[in-house]
Amino acid sequence: ITPWLFLVPLVVIFLIIKKTQPVIALLVGTLLGAIFVLFFQPQMFVQLGETDNITANLQYKVILKSITEGATIETANASLNDLFSSGGMAGMLGTIWLIICAMIFGGIMEAIGALGRISQSLLSLAHSVFGLFASTVASCLAINLTASDQYLAIVVPGKMFEKAYAKRGLAPENLSRTLEDSGTVTSALIPWNTCGAYQSGVLGVGVGEYFVYAIFNYISPFMTLLLAGFKIKIRELREKQ
After folding, report:
1. 136: closest CA among 100, 176, 192?
2. 121 lies in which domain range?
């Protein structure tokens, strides 16, 4: 192990800070990792390739197999063995299939008008400012649960409730904040939602296991309703003007 290896995660962090496209950041991190293992950890090819005869062909196969199928590095420490073992791209396929299915299902629900119907039904129950906020929260949660996609849980209620907020003299910031507090952050708490599936797959921890620790995620909708009930930080259109 050499300090030079820290350059790989540092470069990836730098790309994230610079808001580089995720695909590019992941690609750069993967390529740098492959290059650095060639120069600084050649012994890995002996262990992963299960041979002492290191050739260019072997190095290529080991790197490609590690990226696609994963790798297992054995050490004397059982905890480190788990840390150094990965499933590669193949290990994420189950999560990817679930995300694709959820996106297709959500798209179908939106195309047939089911999501709009849910939002319209909840909107009809809003007879006050607090009721409007509550209907927005309920709509986001309902779509997160039924459509299984965070994007739809934000966009559909956003379109449906936009005029209702303006009609009551409320600034768009109120709707935006409510969508974030109830649509964005709660999606990671639903196992079959695209966000919940991704978080669970990447972290290797079930949604039910990290749910109790995700305090911000499930407190946010209640805080939104609390602020709306006491009319705290509720901006009106005339204030904005």
Report:
1. 176
2. 92-240
